[in-house]
Amino acid sequence: MKYLLTPAAILILVWSIPSYSEPSVSRGLMLKMHGLEVDAKRVFIDLLYNDEPHEEDKADALYQLGLIAFNNKDIGLATETWGLLIDEFPNTEKGRTVSAGIKYLLEDYDALVLESSKEEIRDREEV
Question: Which terminal Cβ of the chain has fewer Cβ within 10 Å, N or C?
Answer without folding.
Answer: N
